[in-house]
Specification:
Blueprint lengths: L1 E4 L4 H10 L6 E4 L13 H16 L3 E10 L17 H11 L7 E11 L5 E12 L15 E3 L11 H7 L1 H19 L8
Amino acid sequence: MQVHLATTSAHKLAEFMPLLAGSSLSLSAMPAPLDIEETGLTFAENACLKAVTAARHWQVPCLADDSGIAIRALGGRPGIHSARYADTDAARIGRVLGELEGAADRGATFHCALALAWPDGRAVEVEGVVDGAVTLAPRGAGGFGYDPVFEVTGTGLTYAELSADDKNRLSHRAVAVRLLLDRLAASVQSGQPVRAGD
């Protein structure tokens, strides 16, 4: 099934392509950017808003994600505002590290909500979550966004220090993609089509 990824981020497209390799979904970028205002109050609401809007506009199935980091000591911030927490990746990281200065609890979760929508209104939604902690300083040269300061529980490594293969296995995006593919496979096996809000 040919699916547009409802994003203008080349980083996201590059991360999703290997995660969906060998699946029934053939991913491509949208033909042109869409101006979709993210007015949802949760990652899931924003992902669904983007997927449904893009699917109706392009008249093809569209996959959208909304992802970000939620830090316990900051009351869940930056959360759905992760990409807008500052103007650049370096500034976003700097703001988070500054707000956590002296904090004893550096626990955090990385979230990826995925929504796959069809032009007729059918949709399926999942959310992948990975536990970790914010490091004292950036580490590693890979990835983007908050990757250099998010250490994945049980690995001792930040996302930016993981190999591409390990990140494709352990990331919040990878978890969400596996959940999505499982939901789609279960739908096919049961003969029950996915419905809006599933």
